[in-house]
Design goal:
Layout: H1 5-14, H2 24-45, H3 48-56, H4 70-80, H5 84-102, H6 106-121, H7 126-137, H8 139-143, H9 145-148, H10 153-171
Helix pairs in contact: 2-3, 2-5, 2-7, 5-6
Length: about 180
């Protein structure tokens, strides 16, 4: 789903009964971005050794905990021990993915999304607040995924590849 106003105006005029669905990756991107910004805030306050360890292992914060190896889970637990704020934000990230994966219909999704927002509202960090603001703006489109479970990921990949091809072609043009 494109977020440009002109896109939504055009779609609404041409397809008045349309159901707009936000791809799950919009939400995941906003949540992981907020988590990494919280990590950077925490990292600045740590002692040099802990700062380096958190920076080296920062990507362990992104995937679901259940997908990590035993060793990675130990490292993750150490990282989360650096700050209650980091742990709270990481738990919020985990809750988002669990909500997305486990909501079987729009009724459950709507209730779960409300609970997830309440969890996020308790995190005192500007990037989290900004992410929540965007998620509230697109709430219906995000919940609509649970109505029809469609995604435009394939189309997005084609668009990205075509843009990359155009960049490569443009970089080889002799002026």
């Amino acid at each position: 789903m494109d977020s440009a106003k002109s896109y939504h105006t055009w779609i609404s005029e041409c397809f008045p009964e349309e159901i707009r669905v936000a791809d799950r990756f919009l939400g995941q991107w906003l949540v992981i971005d907020a988590l990494q910004e919280v990590r950077k805030t925490i990292q600045r306050e740590l002692l040099p050794r802990a700062k380096a360890w958190l920076k080296t292992n920062h990507l362990l914060l992104n995937p679901l905990e259940e997908s990590l190896s035993v060793e990675s889970k130990k490292t993750l637990e150490e990282l989360l021990g650096y700050s209650p704020l980091l742990r709270k934000c990481w738990e919020w990230k985990e809750a988002f993915t669990t909500w997305y994966n486990d909501s079987p219909n729009t009724e459950v999704a709507t209730h779960g999304f409300k609970s997830w927002f309440e969890q996020g509202d308790k995190i005192d960090h500007e990037t989290v607040k900004s992410g929540l603001k965007s998620m509230r703006k697109w709430k219906n489109e995000i919940i609509n995924y649970h109505r029809c479970r469609w995604t435009n990921a394939t189309v997005e990949v084609v668009i990205i590849v075509s843009k990359l091809i155009n960049i490569v072609i443009a970089s080889h043009v002799i002026v």
